Amino acid sequence: MQSNVKKIYDTLIDKNIKKTRVEIICRVGGAEFEVRNKDIMGNLIQSWLEVFLDHNNIRWDAPSNTQKYPDFILDDNQFMELKCWFKNATPAFDLANFKSLVNDLTINPKRLDSDYLIFNYGFDESGITINDFWVKKIWEITKIPTGKRSQNYNLISSQIKKGTIYNLRPFNFIKSPDECIGSKKDFLVQMKKTVDHFSDQLITSANIFKNGDEWMDVVNKKMLKDKEKFI
Asked: What gap in Å lies between CA 67 and CA 137, rounded to an integer?
């Protein structure tokens, strides 16, 4: 866990955010009502977290394009992504568009060191509650699918529809944490295998790599170059 992300995690613990009730109050035309809608929770939690960081004197910035990665840029150029999901469902949020991730890692392999702050929320008769939260690396929330009928068998957890790969997806890392990919290196190996398997979709004439091995070589060389730059 990066140092500034740990500071955020520790502050969330200190402020007893686990099991905290969430109230969303709207006023329209003089009528006041409470909103309980899962569809808005992602944006709501991000807006709240921004205020929470400010109130606790934790410096952060957002990318110039708010639709781009990452959600939060912390001191020392540390990256943090925010994800959330409904506690009665299996985690199925998008980690990244797969093709965009493949291309971006060749120029920005620092993404691999990002931390993912993940909130789990619930609904009951009393309202909305932040149930729990975790900080994970990307390989800790992805797995190697073992179902032989799966379109991503022996590759990496992802969203695939009718043979087309769309997004990198998490698995149920709470229920089966030991099934996660073991390390950053192992994550890159599975990405390489996936690049080869879906090469007709993920590699074009515009790319500087022609196969998974070349892709991984480009990523590794850029990581070494960036590391030397900051030594």
From this structure: 21
Q: Residue 102: pLDDT above 80?
A: yes
Comparing CA positions, the residue from 216, 112, 200 lying closest to residue 208 is 216
Phi, psi angles (nearest 5°) of residue 91: -55, 125
Task: Count other C-beta atoms under 10 Å from residue 126's C-beta.
Answer: 7
Number of folded domains that form the chain: 1
The predicted structure's pLDDT at residue 66: 66
Residues spanned by the domain of 174: 3-214
User: What phi and psi, each to the nearest 5 degrees, are found at residue 108?
Assistant: -140, 60
CA angle 22, 26, 29 (to 5 degrees): 170
pLDDT in tens, 174-221: 999 999 999 999 999 999 999 999 999 999 999 999 999 999 999 999
Residue 220 lies in a domain: no
Task: Please write the tens of the pLDDT for every residue from 119-177.
Answer: 999 987 777 899 999 999 999 999 999 999 999 999 999 999 999 999 999 999 999 99
The contacts of residue 5 (CB under 8 Å, 6+ apart) are 74, 78, 80, 115, 117, 135
